[in-house]
Here is the input.
Amino acid sequence: MEERKRPQWSSSIAFIIASIGSAVGLGNIWRFPYIMGEYGGAVFLFIYLLLIFTICILPLISELFLGKFFQKNIVSVYEAIDKKCSIFGWLCIVTAILIPCFYFVVGGWILNYIYISLTDLQVADYTVYFADFVKSPLLQPFYTILFLILTVGITYRGVNKGIEKANNIMMPAFAVILLILAIYTLNLPNASRGLEFMFNPDFSKVNMKMILIALGQALFTLSIGMGALTTYGSYLKKDAKIVRLSYVLAFFDTLLAVLAGIMIFPAVFSFGLEPGAGPNLVFITMPHIFNQLPFGNLISLMFFVLIFFAAITSGISLLETSVLTFIEKFNMSRGKAVLVLTGIISLITIPTSLSYGILNGTALCGFNLFEFLDFATSNILLPFNTLIICLVVGWVIKPSNMLITKRRWCFKIFNFALKYIIPIVLITLMYFGLEG
Ligand code: PHE
Here is the structure.
């Protein structure tokens, strides 16, 4: 049943671009700057970088390794390891279905802001505008579904004609726009205060909760912990060099997140605004700044198109993870798998899009549905799935025994870290971080 011909990336570069497309998303442009703003700027950046290059790089390599080695979807990978483990694969799929349910809502906000910039709609007060927009029972779900349809449209066209092509166009455009905007904001008056906020750490602000949030953000931004990388890795050729590819991926993801900060904070400080504005930073603070800049409309359009490219290329990888699983596990055609998943995601994402409107409330552990999905996926499901991936690769697969390599000692350390160090760190952070 699983013998159907699997698609493959046309080159390693295509894989790298698509994986950067998956990694660089709302996590970098929307979430990273506002969380960094809330948790003290430079010190958060420092902890985040430390976590990425010590802790997160190993599960990143492990996930790609699983994909490349087994050439299967995440559920079948776990099944191939041990039938009893398939539950962990399905937990990844649950995560891959739940993340889009709030991610696509933000995608809808972006589409709405692209529309405002295109039509030159004059908004006097973005605080009022944004609050009214997210409350709207029609407009808000409309834009969310529109974003879902665009994502589905690309995924439906398959790995080479859809995913690869979209990434090849959008990611270079993304990098160019980001550079132009960062140079522009760096030239605003008092821009250096923004840089100081980003690069001058105050270590007295470190605490467990902050480290958990930084870890959740690091996993989220690298797309670790739900099988997206296993999925993309499964389209790699057997001789691909995954360790090198993982470093390239982590490097670019971090670089682009830092650049996004460099694009945002100098502007925020230049106008004397609050860096800790939370999720509103991009949707209230930034448009307010654009309003006062020369060619503000054009800048605003570039800014939201930039975020749109980032969001949709990640959205595609989120969807592809469950699409591939449905194709291979239930022997469905791509079209049918896409259709069924669109139905399931719509059922949850429409109520989620009403979280600040008619379904507003704090019924879910003090959160509304949107906040609950964001918190539960980034801070519970992703770390938990990552823990399982590390344990399975470290204890069961043992790459050091499998890979014939000149640098065996490297893989011995790698194994040791996967078996003991990373699980202990993950469990400790989850325990203390969730306690508050
Ligand atoms: N990495 C993406 C971002 O930063 C989100 C994502 C998470 C995508 C998990 C795929 C899997 O926005």
About this structure: The CA atoms of residues 212 and 431 lie 9 Å apart. The first helix runs from residue 12 to 23. The chain is about 75% helix and 0% strand. The chain has one domain: 12-377.
